[in-house]
Structures are given as C-alpha cells and as structure tokens.
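Think of the structure tokens as a kind of shorthand, similar to the way a musician reads notation: each symbol stands for something richer, in this case the local conformation of the backbone. In the example below we present two proteins back to back. Begin with the first one, reading the sequence and then the tokens, and try to describe in your own words what changes along the chain.
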Amino acid sequence: MTRKKTNRFWKWTKRIILFLFISSLLYTVLLLWVMPPITVTQLANSFQYGLKRDYVGWNEISYNVKLAAIASEDQAFADHNGFDWDAMEKSLRPKKKGKKTKIPPGGAASTISQQAAKNVFLWQGSGVSKYIRKVPEFYFTFLTELIWGKKRILHVYLNTIEMGPGIFGIEAASQHYFHKPAKNLSRQEAAMIIACLPNPKKFTVVPMSRRVAWRYPQILQQMSNIEDDEDIQRIIR
C-alpha cells in the first residue's frame, strides 16, 4: 500500500507540473498579443486604492518614457539575457565595514525583464515570500526573454508596473500626474514618473517627494549618456 501511494503521489505530481508548464507556456504566448487581464499586484491593490489602468500600444508611449525606464532601471537591458549576472554578483558580495554595497536603482540586481515577469505572473512582497518567488521569477524571466523579446518585455513592463497608489502603467500615470496622454510626455516628465520606482507609494510624483526631486535629474543625465547606443535605439524606436 505504501508503494502504491508513493507511485500515485509521484504520478499526480508529474501531471500537475506538466499542467503548470503547458498553461504557463500558453499564457506567455498569448501575452505576445494581449496585455494581462489582471495581475496579482493589481488585484491586491484594488481593494485599498482602487485600480487606475489603461493599457496602450507601443506607439502610444513616448520615446522619452522608454529611454528613461532603461536609463534608470536597467542600462544593460539591450545586452543581457534577462539577468544581469555582474550586478547580481556585486549585490551578493559581503559589505565592508562602514561601506554600503551599491546596487542598481531597480533593486538588488533586478532587471527590467525580471521586474516584468514578477509584475505580470507573480506577486510582490519581502521576507520569506520574496525568496519563494525567486525560482518562478527566474523561470518566467527566461520564458519571456525567449518568447517575447526585448521590445515586448519593455512594452508590457511600462503598461503593468505600479506608478502610484492604485496607478498601473504609464498611461494612467501620465493622465493622473500631468493630465496628458503618455505619448506626449516630455523628457523631464518621463524622468519624474520613472523616478518614483521602486516604491511609488512612498516616492510620490505629485506632490514631488524629496527622493523624486533628487533622482529625476540623475535619470535625465543618464538618458543623455545612453541615448546614442544603437542596441537601445533598436529597442525603443
């Protein structure tokens, strides 16, 4: 009886894993053409803050926003395969006494690809849930890099990321903060919105928090520094 139960357990485990793999693969392929109907983060926020969201097409997002996102969150976006291994290694190095370890603005070596995967397929959170999330985050990051490509990843990222309490995506953020469509955002306005990341509930755009006021001029400078990169241009045009 024990052997039968064990065999039955592994049989069902394999079926569940196969089902999860096939369903995740099909859903990822579907999102090549449509935006996610809802995400865990959007659903969780909607109870407390409501849900302001308006998905827009690639050409309805300002060039300035695409450039600002890469300049601020992941300057190696055009070059890596979803994971910035050099930045990850630096973030894991032990800190020297009295010296802080520098990590990317988007988080502990978290690329735009990883952030997109987390926002679309998984959940937010820290502590134990953060470490539980890492394995599926790596899986979905690999899958989106393989199936979507860079332009689609950036497009989905800019439509789904939280940019204020209950505000998801660049169109909703642009309308809320500057009362204009995302395609008309200036370089400064784009940098200001992106500067609210990674904590848009705390780092407010309007009224402008001290962090956003300090950060957005840096983003503008970085935008100028990377703008001539041909690989980046191929993505954001």
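Once you have a description of the first chain, move to the second and do the same.
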Amino acid sequence: MPAKKVHIVSLGCPKNLVDSEVMAAALASGGYLLTKSPEEASVILINTCAFILPAKEESIEEILRMAVWKSGGMGPCTHLVVTGCLPQRYRRGLKKALPEVDLFLGIAEIPNVAAHLDLLFKAGPQSRSSVIGKPDFLMNASHRRLISGPRHSAYLKIADGCTNRCSYCAIPSIRGKARSRTIEDIMKEAELLAAQGVRELIITSQDTTAYGMDRKGKTTLSRLLSNLVGVSGISWIRILYTYPAHLTEELLRTMAAEEKICHYLDIPIQHSDDAILKAMHRRGDNALIRNVMRKAREIVPGIAIRTSLITGFPGETTKRFENLLSFVREMRFDHLGVFTYSREEGTKAASLPSRISEREKQRRRDMVMEVQAGISGEINTALIGTRQEVLVEGEGELDGYPHVGRCRRQAPEIDGVTHLRGGAAETGALVACRITDADDYDLYAEII
C-alpha cells in the first residue's frame, strides 16, 4: 500500500510551530509522507492557536477552508484532523460545532499523532473521535523534529505551560503549569540541531525567565545559556518571552559576557500604568520595568529591546492610556508590537467593568504604533554607517537588493529585515555588512 500523505498547517506562535515539527517527525517515522500541498494530501492536520479571539477566528477559518478539500472532492483528502490549543481549550463543544473534523487531539497527544491516524483509517470514513486529556506533554530530545523553516535557524523550546496567572490570559488553562526540561536534555537537542546545520537558536517558552523555577537545584536560564554557548556550530543564541519581574542581573551579565548570545531581549511588559498592571495581575510595577530597562542597557551596551503591549484593557482611562504613550516615547523600544485587549472567557479579567469599545481599542493601538514607527525609524537611521553581522535568509524581493537577512537585533517574523547587496551571500551564511540606509522597520546594507 502506498504511504498516505499528510499536509500540516501550523498556526500561532513559535512554541506551536515546535509542536508541529514534532508531529511531522512522528508522522514520518510512522510511515506517513508529508506534503506541502493540501491538494495532494489524504489527511490535512491543522495545529491551532486559541490564545485570543483573533487567533481562535483564524483557526476556525483555516479549518473551514481546509475542509473544502475533503468535502469538495477536489483532491484525495479523506480526513481532517485538528490539534493544539483550540481543542484543548474547547474540548466539549467542538465536535458539534465543527462536524467537518474527523479527529480532535489535545496537547498530550502530540507524540502519538501517527498512532491516532492509524486508528482513524482503520475505523472507516464515517468515524469521528476526540482524544483530549490533561495538557502535560513536555517534549524532550528523543522527540525528533522536522524543521519547517530555514535550516539555519530553529526555535528551541525549553519549557511549556505557565504559572504566572495574568488576569487576561488563558494560557495556563490551555497549556497547564510551567514545567521545564533539564539542561542536559536541552543540550542534546541543541547538538542535534547544530548537526543539521542550524546556526541560530531562538530560546522560547511561555516565560523563558521562569525556566527552572519548577525544578530543584541550579537550573536557571543563565546556567542553560552558559552551556549552550559551547555547542559547536551554533553562532547566535536569541532569547524571547522574558518576563520583566523574572529578568535577573545574572542573566544580563551572562548575555554581556558571551559573544554568541545576541544583544537582544524580548520583554513583553503589556502596560506601564500601575493600576492597569495591578488589574492584569502582573508582577512588578512601572518602577520595576524602568529598572529592568535601565539595567539591561547599562549591563549590555547596545542591546535591542522588543516589547508587547495591550491597549483597551478594562479600566484603561484616557489618562492611563496617555501614561502608556508617554512611557513608549520615553523608553524608546527598538521593536514593539501591540495587541488590542481580547476578553477571554474563563479569565479573571473577563468579569471586570469599564469595558472599552473595539473601535477605541484599535484607535489606541494605532496611536501607539504611529509613535513607535517614528522611534524605530530614528533608531534605524542612527545605525547607518555601522558594521553589522547579518545572517542571510535567502533571495530578496527588492530591486537592487538580491538578498535579504537579519542582523543580531532582528528576530524572525516579528522584527524588520536587512536587505543586502554588493557581494556573494549564501543562504545560512553570516556576512559582515555596512548599513547604508534605513526606514521605520528595515535596514539596507552593503556586504563588506
């Protein structure tokens, strides 16, 4: 019998992407063939996100879009499978709401996906099932991955779940409590990735600075990084999702001391007004955030800092929003993203009064992004004439710039890129460049 083909759609964050890569490897080991084309697939698997309303809407839209390949008779698709956060969060209602789906799998079933597909095919075309238990899966180095993005860059998920309990966030109820991998196990995976040609490791979890807090001993992010810099073949290590109240001076000093660790930090602060931070159940106040920013820039000179904000949280008065705008102008973040507040059932913030209209949330978001565009433009312009190390991502799309890449201050997908010209640039290579021009989000460089 020819092997059945599976097409995987991965939605949401990098942490979800790692889960998709684990499932891809498990399916390949189980005898399934992977295809990038839904029109060729016998099975379409959608790994969903359900963090906030737009993510849920995107997941449902994608499920319905892919269902056409099964119901419309346009290809060989016989089964539609939905995994990840959406079925984990809404386990009871989805079978009735989405009759197009043949199988719903929770997070615990990520490593067992091939066995579930085997059972699905044996049960026949009319079979529908749902397997959703406690979200306790934590990958380890024995769970191989098929890297879906560029071979030179990979996310390294060091933990799963979260114990912070922010009032607006459903992640703890979806992903469970924070649980960290051992340093030894993470090192094994890092070495495997390096052997496959990965040059950049991007450290990720729900809260990377909480790494090791659930374990006894000296398991800390700083100690992990000190070990990872010794992995042969790895040139860059980038850190995402650091919680300001957990960001230690030890971590900053480790960054400053180790050349391989990019002088880049993603520090989602969500807001700057003390009343809003308290209502969000965030640990730390405006003074703490300011102190973290000051220490980061003092200990790691030239560090690029990204943050994420939420506009329209209940109780965000005009004055409190103006406080946030002033804070953004003062702090001058290198990169910044803004979400409008999404009222999520099951969270403590869902019952808060003083709600703000969707239109006003969006207006405030746009105002923050307009301010940030000017700041980013000024920061980028100041880089003109500087020498930067750039990781080449591939062919460019701009006239006169045949290649595109990222410098150490740019994370994939969420920040700008560096457009390259003037020399040979093999994908995955690190090249020395001089910045010749800039706009609000991107840099332009000449290869030296």
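Compare your description with these statements about the second chain. The chain has 13 helices and 19 strands.
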